[in-house]
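Continuing the batch. This is chain 6 of the set; chains 1 through 5 are on the previous pages. Same settings as before, nothing changed between runs. Recording input and output for traceability.
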Amino acid sequence: MVTKAESRKYVPSKMPIMVHLREMRDRLVRSIIVVAVTTGLAFIFAPQIFEILKAPAANANLVYIELTEFIGTFFKVSLATGIIAAMPFLVYQLFGFVAPALTSKEKGYIYRILPAVTIMFFAGVAFAYFVALPPALDFLFNFGSGIADAQIRIENYISVVVRLIVLVGLVFETPIIIMFMARLGLVTPQWLAKRRKLWIILAFVLAAIITPPFAPINQSIIAIPLIILLELSRWLSRLVYKERGEAK
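Output for chain 6:
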């Protein structure tokens, strides 16, 4: 019987790449299946989800002006909700894909922080919905109220709301990502401290990308938590930082 070591000896060099590609394919297929299931469930409850997304807009009268506009928005809301609901599984698949390149200690550390990754994402979603979204919408709805009446297309409204919620949720993962990199010795607390000013600038740039345009107050509402997240990242990196030799 050929041992594992012997089998490796005679396996062509390209074989590990093919195995890696097959694993990527399998994880991608599983992720698509889960997203399809969660999207299907979201499609069933889409009317209730629409009401949740419309709530920050108070009594705004949303309209659609194209025949297929609303059904396209309906599917967009279902897909976005499905991806958000499937995020814990998607993150697990991503970490599972990179795990073979890590040591056993690094793998154990990854699986311990997975719950924190999920919690931080949904914390970002909650922050976007309850804190960032209301003032942003209030500014946009009332900016030209004395000049013209707003008739907001539902597709435009949903795009702004979903983009803000999803991107803020992803940005809230920053402390976990930096903590993981510090654990592996890829970044140091000192390196992060030296780039504090750069991160402050980057925080406002990211806030400008995430939030609706021409809303400086709302950009600040996003940028300030991003700066706080960096400080949290620096603090967490000091707790877990390991030299590259120690992390192995």
